[in-house]
Every structure is written in structure tokens, then in C-alpha cells.
Amino acid sequence: MLKQPEKAAAAAHTYFQANPEHVEMGQNLEQYKDLQGVKEDHFVDREARPHQRSFTAAVRLYDSGDFEGAIALFEEALVEYYKADVECRALCQGPQKFEGHDHLRYRYSLHELISDHFTQVLHCEHECVRDLATRPGRLSPMENYLPLHYDYLQFAYFQVDRLEEGMQCALAYLLFHEGEEFMTENVDYYREVLGHDGKPRENYWSSTGGRDDSNRIPSGTDGWMEYVPISEKRNVTVVVPQQLKEGGPLVYDSVQLVQNSAALNGTQRVLLDHVISEDECAELRHLAHYGYEGRVPMKSARLFYNISERARHITESYFLLNSTLHFSYTHLVCRTAITGQQDHRNDLSHPIHADNCLLDPEANECWKEPPAYTYRDYSALLYLNGDFEGGEFIFTEMDAKTMTERLQADEVIQSLDTQSVWGQGLNINPKDEL
Known about the structure:
The protein starts with a helix and ends with a strand. Helix content is 38%, strand content 12%. It has helices at 5-18, 23-33, 50-64, 67-91, 110-132, 145-159, 163-176, 181-194, 278-292, 298-318; strands at 225-226, 237-238, 256-259, 269-273, 333-335, 350-353, 358-360, 365-367, 378-382, 393-396, 403-407, 411-415, 421-424, 431-433. A hairpin with a 4-residue loop joins β7 and β8. The protein folds into three domains: 5-47, no CATH class; 52-238, no CATH class; 256-433, q2cbj1_9rhob like domain (Jelly Rolls), CATH 2.60.120. With 434 residues, the chain is α+β, with helices and mostly antiparallel strands. The protein is built from ten helices and 14 strands. One of its GO terms (cellular component) is endoplasmic reticulum. Belongs to the leprecan family.
């Protein structure tokens, strides 16, 4: 051991940025934060490129209210982004070899070879946008990465009463997302206060001969982006091109609605009670033990299937889905706290996570990539007993720290959007769930 905790903190943070699903490394980071001599600025991503490093530091200052410092770093991030973009595009001018283009060696027409080469060059240059918005070790780019610089800047300039620069940045943002309602309202405000119109900042991507609109949004997105002012929300999120609804029939007479999405501080969430009877609960708990021993009665297996279908029908009906909901899988989970090992503990029995994306609390992002179950749309948890202490189901913000709701009931159903970050508290007594 070299006893250099500040370097260990940086190494752990770097690893966690590329592997946010790694539970043990997340726990190590929490331990490093409590060590004497380790400061917040020791947690740096050693693999981050200069433009990303400046942007991350700027966001940190912005969140702390240091708008002057944030402005300087956001401007620095734009300069570094320009350098990285020029370098990336220059590298695209060299020989290209793309998967699926091996047939080119068999072509003899010169104009076809030239055409294919420059098609590959254009594809490479387009991917520079995606590459510069992707953190080392990640597969997915940060949504709306370059426009976010101007979003942050326009509000930061507003906070320090530099309205001229604020309007220029707001207009630059609109070059990427023409007609965005909230930013257009900001521009109208700037014009009214200043008494004159303005022009977007003349950066290399917004000047004559610069990049066109097709290069402004990272590939892999469908362009459905919702803008919410930075003062209200930090992350611009993808808009699902369908209206989310809820409040449909619960199908079964015994089922009771306990809390809806509004009461649970989110969207597409519901808390239900009396989904199954006490006898059915007992039968399923016995089934868990039978299955462990390798013998499952037909009656219990049929009940397991029927109750799974009941949960599916309730979800389809309550959320008014237009298409059939299919299972990825259903399973029984038994959690029992070990007697005598629960004193002086406040850790969670099930870490904060999201089912269909990899939660990255440091970046307030949730990455839609494996090993997360990216194909899932809804999760439903059915509690089979209530004779326990603790074991609360909790929702948090994307930082995995700020708790938005905690609850206990028979069944929790949630849509797996970017707000569905959840975990479970410490279990003092046994608890089973389907």
C-alpha cells in the first residue's frame, strides 16, 4: 500500500465513469469520500478528454452557484471542443476501411472508388459529433452535448447580468434546435430588455461554410429532444413520441389503488394493494421452497403463471397501453436478513439502480446499453408478506442520493423511463417478492 488516497480516489472515479454498474467500485468511492485528506476535486476522470473535463468542471461550478467561474470553463470547453473536432475531421481524410466495404478492392471503376471513399469520409466526419460527445469507455453519447454548452452559458450570463452575451448564446442554441419554445421565449425576453435584436455567436459550426444541421445531433438519436430551461431542469431528455396515459380500470374487483404517479412524485408509477389473497401469498412462498428442493406441485406452478398474468393485465389496463405487453421474465425473490449482522448498518439491501439503463449518478445520466435490460418498458414488484421491518421501496433522483418517495405495499408498477431510479432499504426480517 502506497497510502496515496487522492490518487486512489481518482483511479476509482475513472473506472466508475466507464462502469457505473459496478457496485463494489461505487462503494469504494463512498469510502474514499470519508477519508481524511481526500477532497472533492480529487475525484477526476483521468481518461476524460480536455473538452469533456472542462465541461464537467463547469457544470460543477454552475451547480454551486459560481456563474463567473462556470462561464470561464464553459468557454474553455468550447475552445477545446473546436480543437478536438478539427483533429477528428482531419483524421477522417486519410485512408478509410469500413466494415462491409471489403468489396471495394474488387472494383475497377475509378469514379466508383473515389465516390465510395468520400462517402466514407463524410460518414467518419459525421461520427465525430458522436465521438466527441461520448465519454471514454461508454457506448452512448451524451444527449444534446454541444448545444448544452450554449444552454448553460445563456443562463449563466443572465445570472451575472451580461445579457448581450446571453442572447448570443441563446440564439446559437436555436441554430441547433430551431423554434424551441422555451429558448425562443428566452430570446424574446433578451430582446425586450436590451431593446434590440442580436445575432448568434460566430463559431466555426455556425458561420458560412460551417457544419450543416445533419451534423449537429449525434447519430443514434431520433431528434425527439425536449428542451427544458436549465433553471428548471439540468438534463435535456428524449421525448417519447407518444402520449403517456394512466388511470385505466384495475380489472379485478379486489385490487385497490393506493397512490398514483402524482402522489409518487414521478410519471407512470402506481402503488396497489390487495392484488392477491393471503392464501395465494402463502402458496407462492411455499412454491419458493419447493422449487429450491427441485419439486414444484402443478397447482403452485399454475398459480405462479396466473398471478404473473394478473400483474400483466393490470399494467396493460391501468396505463391504457395500445399494444400487448409481453414478459421478459418472472421470478420469485427471497430476501432474509442474517440475524446478528444488522447492527450499526445503514446500507441498502438492493442498491439504487434503473432496470433498463446503466445509472451514472456522477453525470446524472442513465446509459441505454448492455448489460442493462434496455428492452424493458415496465417493471412490477409484488410483495408476498408484510411481517418485516425496513425493506422500503424508494425512488431517488438521478444522483442516487436525493430521495423522492419511500413506500411499502402489495405491488409497485413503474414505467422504465429516465426517472425510474429505485432501490430497497435494509431488511430486518424476511421478505419475499414476485
